[in-house]
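Checklist before submission:
- one chain only
- standard amino acids only
- sequence pasted in full

Submission:
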Amino acid sequence: MEKYRSHIREKAIGRVKSRLAIAGKSIPDLDKENLEHLVKEEEEKIVSRWKQSGVIAFMAFLGIT
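Returned file contents:
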């Protein structure tokens, strides 16, 4: 389970870095709390997408579209 959390965390950090680059900011521009909040948001988005994909795949497996 820790392997998945680590993977999600790394992916979320990468997305936060991308968002900051688009906004013209960098990680040192943010305090620790704001950075953690952004990473947590991205983690939740990733998990939500994975859950949604899993449900859709299961429905397709059952022939429900």
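Reviewer check: The CA atoms of residues 31 and 37 lie 10 Å apart.
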